From TrEMBL:
Domain ABC transporter as annotated: residue spans: 7-221
Pfam (any one): ABC_tran
GO molecular function ontology, one term from the record: ATP binding
Annotated Gene3D superfamilies: P-loop containing nucleotide triphosphate hydrolases
Protein name as catalogued: ATP-binding cassette domain-containing protein
Alphabetical keyword list: ATP-binding, Nucleotide-binding, Transport
Species: Sinorhizobium numidicum
Family matches, as InterPro entries: AAA+_ATPase, ABC_SmlMolc_Importer, ABC_transporter-like_ATP-bd, P-loop_NTPase
Length: 221
């Protein structure tokens, strides 16, 4: 199963993030379908908080203004579970109580009915990333790279409308990092998903091939 993608752009409209009265970050950008927008900046400049705002899981400690839209649909007041965001973090965060396949089946939308059909889709998703036959494995027995691929497919089978990537490659060794970059960006592009990538690694930005916005590089009032 491939992520459906909607060929709709993602817009961050005049988003400002403040913490305890201090401006951390301000950004306005439209990310086109299949485009990866990279956001870089110093530690503590609010990059993860920006993704939390976009994903709808912002900590109330932050004072945020601005809006997020997918196409012309305003998501700002929409609950996280209804935003259709696909999110990858540094850690794959696989559910340890589910098998590898169970992790994927869990993410397939409920509209896809039938145990057999759901299992087939999960098996196909695993096969696409070189993990045929891994359905019944315990996630704890997988290597870091294998876990990362399961996490990616778990996101894509959920048919997200956009991707939020928070340093998803930083814990992989150099060779795997390059492979995962290629895999993630090629799938995001193929599915037409607007993607925001937060990273400290310029090589991630180069591989993403899209625009780069640097935040937190100047004093802000
Ligand atoms: N729940 C919270 N309550 C108060 N302050 C917080 C909370 N979460 C994060 N912060 C602070 O908000 C600031 C922005 O954090 P954020 O994680 O968005 O930065 P970042 O740019 O992603 O940093 P890094 O590059 O180190 O991951 C930091 O100073 C952080 O300490």
């Amino acid at each position: 199963m491939q992520a459906v993608g909607t060929s709709r752009s993602l817009t961050l409209a005049d988003v400002t993030i403040r913490l305890e009265g201090r401006m951390l970050l301000s950004i306005s950008a439209t990310v086109m379908p299949g485009e990866v927008l990279t956001v870089m900046g110093p530690s503590g400049s609010g990059k993860s908080t920006l993704l939390a705002f976009a994903g709808g899981f912002l900590d109330p400690a932050f004072d945020v203004s601005g809006r997020i839209l997918i196409g012309d649909r305003d998501l700002t007041e929409i609950a996280a579970n209804r935003r259709h965001a696909g999110i990858l973090f540094q850690d794959p965060l696989l559910f340890p109580h589910l098998s590898v396949g169970g992790n994927i089946v869990f993410a397939i939308p409920a509209a896809v009915k039938g145990h057999k059909k759901r299992r087939e889709l999960a098996e196909e998703a695993l096969e696409q990333v070189g993990l045929a036959g891994f359905f019944d494995r315990d996630p704890e027995t997988l290597s870091g790279g294998q876990k990362a691929r399961v996490a990616l497919q778990r996101v894509l089978v959920s048919t997200p409308e956009f991707l939020l990537l928070d340093e998803p490659f930083s814990k992989l060794d150099a060779a795997l990092r390059q492979q995962m970059r290629e895999l993630v960006f090629s799938k995001a592009k193929a599915a037409g998903l607007p993607t925001i990538l937060v990273t400290h690694d310029g090589a991630d930005a180069a591989a993403a091939g899209g625009r780069l916005i640097e935040v937190g590089t100047e004093e802000k009032a």
